[in-house]
Write a structure and sequence with these properties.
The chain is α+β, with helices and mostly antiparallel strands. It has helices at about 15-25, 35-40, 45-55, 95-110, 120-130; strands at about 5, 60-65, 70-75, 80, 85, 115-120, 135-145, 145-155. It binds coenzyme A. Coenzyme A binds next to helix 1, strand 5, helix 4 and helix 5. Coenzyme A binds near residues 97 and 126.
């Protein structure tokens, strides 16, 4: 699958909602139970909800396939927080999230952000570790009645100038 990385536009909203839902329900189940995945993504978000999130001041980059449909996405909040990194099942395991990460780190550096941080799933932890993040803490919380864990991680971006 050939993808190109570009900025989110409003017509991506429905695709992003679909990517998020299928990513949690079908990809994350390698490391989480079906009950945990169902608590994490109880239903598909509406395109409006997705667009509202993507328009709240964060930057969102998508990986678009040959039909210009978003198959994965990442975001970056102004304070360096990476909130979302999700990949559709058919696009997973091909280095696409890695490409998205490299693009968002470049954007963060351009914006003068000095530290990136995230709460990574078990799957995303492996990727973020490869990118130089360190685990600060393993966190466990109860989400819709189901216990689920993730990792608080961070990476300093030293000023190269
Ligand atoms: C985390 C996530 C976004 C990573 O997406 P991805 O595009 O599959 O990531 P990559 O392809 O860059 O790396 C995934 C794996 O494929 C392997 N891989 C990377 N490039 C590859 C390539 N060209 N060929 C074959 N395998 C490759 C990597 O080694 C990696 O292995 P790992 O399981 O040990 O980490 C994806 O697993 C996902 O959507 N997970 C479910 C939702 C989730 O957990 N999101 C994070 C919330 S914090």
């Amino acid at each position: 699958m050939q993808v190109s990385i570009r900025s989110y536009v409003q017509r991506d909203a429905a695709d992003l909602a679909d990517v998020f839902f299928r990513s949690v329900r079908q990809v994350a189940v390698s490391d989480y139970t079906a009950a945990q995945a169902a608590a994490w993504a109880p239903q598909r978000a509406t395109p409006d909800t997705m667009h509202e999130t993507a328009s709240d001041g964060r930057a969102t980059l998508v990986a678009a396939d040959e039909h210009d449909r978003a198959v994965a996405y990442i975001d970056l909040e102004p304070d360096g927080h990476i909130d979302h990194l999700f990949c559709a099942p058919e696009a997973a395991g091909r280095g696409i999230a890695s490409q998205l990460y490299e693009a968002i780190e470049a954007l963060a550096r351009k914006q003068g952000i000095s530290r990136l941080y995230t709460e990574a799933s078990e799957l995303a932890r492996r990727l973020f570790e490869r990118k130089g993040f360190v685990v600060l803490e393993r966190q466990s919380k109860v989400l819709r009645g189901v216990r689920i864990h993730n990792y608080r991680m961070a990476k300093d971006l030293p000023d190269l100038h």
